[in-house]
Design a protein that fits this description.
Layout: H1 3-14, H2 19-33, H3 36-44, H4 48-68, E1 72-78, E2 84-90, E3 109-112, H5 117-126, H6 133-155, E4 163-168, E5 175-178
Parallel strand pairs: 1-4
Antiparallel strand pairs: 1-2, 2-3, 4-5
């Protein structure tokens, strides 16, 4: 199996919104596939400031999306560049069923999100997209932790008439955290 097979499985779990279980599942996977000290390094990264900054930027993106009647907010983080995150407020949106995420590359407004250089350092040294289980375990654990924090932030928001999505740079497909209610 390659990492993309595991990412597909992870996305099915993301749809359940059980963030604690998602983090735990991929932490356990990393423990079984990678060195325990590396997983300990991931555990030791204090995520409180990142989560606070993420929520602040997400709130700013939501305010912008409300004002512009946006179709979606897309949060993208770059694993190779300090885990730098940006929110893109997109005028259009297509559901997952359309299998076309080009809407995310056509945005009107951008809101800078937080970065997480400790994750990039761990990813650069121990992670990656090769077929080594140890690398895949670390990468999946980092992604699960990032998505879980983002998901908890989104779950703390009231409902809005636009989708909220996440993906790492060049990810395909983009993961929907909150879809648009079609009845609105």
């Amino acid at each position: 199996m390659n990492i993309f097979t595991y990412l597909e499985k992870m996305y099915e779990e993301v749809k359940e919104h059980n963030w604690a279980e998602l983090e735990l599942r991929y932490r356990r996977l990393a423990l079984s596939w990678s060195r325990k000290d590396v997983v300990g390094q991931i555990d030791d990264v204090d995520m409180s400031d990142y989560e606070k900054d993420l929520m602040k930027s997400l709130s700013e993106a939501v305010e912008t999306a409300d004002k512009t009647s946006a179709g979606a907010i897309y949060f993208e983080y770059d694993m190779d560049n300090n885990w730098q995150g940006n929110f893109f407020v997109c005028p259009e949106y297509q559901s997952e069923e359309e299998e076309d995420d080009d809407w995310a590359s056509e945005w009107d407004k951008e809101v800078e999100g937080p970065d997480l250089p400790d994750f990039t350092a761990i990813y650069a040294e121990f992670g990656g997209y090769d077929d080594k289980k140890s690398s895949m375990g670390v990468t999946l654990c980092l992604i699960a932790r990032t998505v879980s924090i983002f998901g908890r932030c989104v779950d703390n928001l009231p409902e809005h008439p636009f989708a909220i999505c996440i993906g790492f740079h060049d990810q395909d497909p983009i993961w929907r955290i909150r879809e648009v209610d079609e009845e609105e």
